[in-house]
Inverse folding.
């Protein structure tokens, strides 16, 4: 690939030369496909096609669509052949969820309908008025999180609905399949106000807003002896209720992560390990509202290493630090 695209939740991408870092042309998603905005985190399959999720605004509200493009070219900015493969209706069309990324395993994509909701009326008004979208999103801890699973080749949505208690997520790490199970790892939390209130005012404030915790008010399903999961390497469980499968996660860290303030912006060695079992991921530690350390996690034993000390900052990484 000669250029890397850098999109960020708009209908535009900007090509950047990865060697000189020179800014190249702008690419408009909407000229190839009826999409108003797409995520900044497309996926590539091993045949070189790119997959992304993008919104369209229509009579049925804001709806995310999965679309593959650029078959065989491994170029997220090549939208040739792009077509909508799958549309995922929101459980409440008036209140679609905010999403920032998604995961793709060998056979499936997972869309997370999280309880961070968009107020469509405010969204349209602010759009017309050209105002900031602050306060367009709200955190609804009384709602549950819904995982929609689609076949990435046919676009068909799996009928079973998977639920968990209220959580918010920006970045997911990876997903892979093992013996008819789908394992999905992500950075998430149980207080979505962190995202809703993530404004410059709050970043420069004392941090009170960001520390505010509203406990989840979701219905509770206790894990029981009838977990559907029978994998030796995880304590995650799933129980079947009359209508859905309810999921209980396993933390991918030990208490030593707390000294770094948690982590975000996870990266794996994507070329070799996306959609496959993997051992390491890298992320920023958040001892401050801005990332202040570089962490490496060995998922085999959940061993955490700090690779870059606080106070040291990277400007450009020319080669990935993956192993
Ligand atoms: Fe992101």
């Amino acid at each position: 690939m000669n250029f890397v695209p850098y999109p960020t939740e708009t209908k535009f991408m900007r090509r950047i030369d990865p060697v000189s870092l020179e800014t190249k042309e702008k690419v408009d998603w909407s000229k190839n496909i009826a999409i108003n905005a797409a995520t900044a985190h497309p996926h590539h399959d091993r045949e070189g096609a790119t997959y992304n999720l993008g919104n369209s605004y229509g009579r049925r509200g804001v709806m995310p669509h999965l679309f593959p493009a650029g078959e065989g070219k491994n170029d997220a900015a090549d939208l040739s052949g792009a077509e909508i493969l799958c549309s995922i209706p929101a459980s409440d069309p008036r209140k679609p969820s905010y999403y920032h990324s998604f995961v793709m395993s060998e056979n499936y994509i997972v869309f997370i309908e999280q309880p961070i909701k968009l107020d469509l009326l405010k969204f349209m008004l602010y759009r017309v008025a050209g105002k900031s979208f602050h306060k367009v999103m709200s955190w609804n801890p009384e709602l549950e999180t819904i995982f929609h699973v689609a076949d990435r080749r046919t676009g068909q949505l799996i009928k079973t609905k998977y639920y968990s208690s209220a959580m918010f997520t920006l970045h997911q790490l990876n997903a892979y399949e093992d013996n008819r199970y789908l394992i999905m790892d992500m950075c998430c939390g149980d207080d979505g106000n962190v995202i809703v209130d993530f404004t410059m005012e709050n970043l420069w404030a004392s941090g009170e807003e960001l520390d505010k915790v509203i406990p989840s008010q979701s219905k509770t399903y206790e894990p029981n002896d009838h977990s559907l999961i029978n994998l030796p390497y995880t304590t995650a469980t799933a129980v079947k209720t009359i209508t859905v499968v309810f999921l209980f996660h396993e933390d991918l860290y030990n208490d030593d992560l707390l000294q770094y303030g948690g982590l975000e912006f996870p990266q794996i060695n994507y070329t070799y390990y996306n959609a496959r079992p993997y051992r390491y991921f890298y992320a920023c530690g958040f001892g401050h509202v801005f990332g202040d350390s570089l962490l490496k996690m060995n998922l085999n034993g959940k061993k955490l290493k700090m690779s870059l000390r606080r106070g040291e900052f990277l400007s450009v990484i020319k080669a990935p630090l993956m192993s």
